[in-house]
Amino acid sequence: MSLLVVGSVAFDAIETPFGKTDKIVGGAASYIALASSYFTQNVNLVAVVGDDFPNDFIAHLNVHGVNTDGLQVKKGEKSFFWSGKYHTDMNSRDTITTELNVLGDFDPIIPDAYQNCDYLMLGNLTPKVQQTVIERLTKRPKLIVMDTMNFWMEIAMDDLRKTISMVDVLTINDEEARQLSGEYSLVKAAAKIQEMGPKYLIIKKGENGALLFHGKQIFFAPALPLEEVFDPTGAGDTFAGGFIGYLAKTNDISFDNMKNAIIYGSAMASFCVERFGTERIVNLNNDELKNRISEFKHLVKFDL
Ligand code: AMP
Fold first, then answer.
1. What is the Å distance from ligand 1's center to 72 Cα?
2. Which CATH architecture best describes the domain 3-300?
3. Strand 10-16 to strand 80-86: parallel, antiparallel, or no bridges (unpaired)?
4. Which residues contact 75 (CB under 8 A, 6 or more apart)?
5. Where are the domains of the chain?
6. Using CA positions, which residue lies closest to atom 10 of ligand 1?
7. How far apart are the C-alpha atoms of 244 and 248, rounded to whole Å?
């Protein structure tokens, strides 16, 4: 099934307790497109970069089967830039810089060939732009999944609420769920957020796994305990890419299949954190993915 991915494609500078990078390629849609490409070969990207963005990364996306006809390259302008620094436990980070640059006035043009997509993944981006994408699709996709972050809650809450009301699945982290709902209990937060529109809510808890809420049903998936956690940047986006990629591959949006999709998303995210940026997820092979999935199975399997 065809998947439309929208989100930031960017430069990041990252500092973790294990090291520091100069500007490297990042952005929500970069991680999502790469991760989802391991499940479906029908990934279409809508995003914007400046002419400072490396062509070889775009070529990499193409090698992964990602269609980049909808990636706008703005002459004489700079790509979105984000920098962040992780605390010692790596579960929390501070944003040091957010330079919107080309994202500031991004007009998401959807190529005709991208219309009629079955799945839409709205990666982290200006909420108004996410909304415009939904409005510009001539046919509502079978499933719309949206990610966002506290940055937008702080500067664009009204737009964000409007966009949230238009989607089927929202993915946010625990801190953001609390901020959005004003509730400390994640169960209460989930109930309130579902009242805002999305019938499914995924709350990501970093190394503590992820929760899927749908009405009164709750599913929990752990994160794989790893020897090496080098850089958590993009883990949430990689998770989202694995999640929606698996749904697009299986074309089954039941709650039970979403549980499987969460395990695939978690497996993809477990690779992402092992190196800086997108380094680890650009060249995965099928065996590695298969082995991770079976590690997940063993991790949570027990007989009572
Ligand atoms: P994650 O670690 O999954 O939260 O995602 C990190 C990625 O999100 C980085 O590669 C950033 O380039 C991107 N990012 C950070 N802030 C924003 C923002 N305000 N809008 C869009 N993308 C962002």
1. 18
2. 3-Layer(aba) Sandwich (3.40)
3. parallel
4. 51
5. 3-300
6. 27
7. 6
Pull the structure tokens for residue 251.
Answer: 């074309």
Query: Cα separation of 147 and 262, whole Å?
Result: 14
Question: Tokens for 118?
Answer: 């079955």
**Cβ distance 175 to 144 under 8 Å?**
no
Helices (H), 156-254: 157-164, 174-181, 186-195, 235-250
What residues flank ligand 1, with Cβ below 6 Å?
A: 8, 10, 12, 26-28, 82, 98, 124-125, 149, 151, 233-237
CA of 272 to the centre of ligand 1 (A): 14
Q: How far is the CA of 302 from the centre of ligand 1 (A)?
A: 37
Q: How far is the C-alpha of 107 from the C-alpha of 287, rounded, in Å?
A: 40
Give 206's DSSP letter.
Answer: G
Phi then psi for residue 71, to 5 deg, are: -90, 110
For the chain, 304 residues long, give each residue's pLDDT as a single digit of tens.
999 999 999 999 999 998 899 999 999 999 999 999 999 999 999 999 999 999 999 999 999 999 999 999 999 999 999 999 999 888 788 999 999 999 999 999 999 999 999 999 999 999 999 999 999 999 999 999 999 999 999 999 999 999 999 999 999 999 999 999 999 999 999 999 999 999 999 999 999 999 999 999 999 999 999 988 889 999 999 999 999 999 999 999 999 999 999 999 999 999 999 999 999 999 999 999 999 999 999 998 898 8
Cβ distance 217 to 191 under 8 Å? no
> CA separation (Å) from 159 to 131, 156, 163, 214, 274?
8, 6, 6, 24, 35
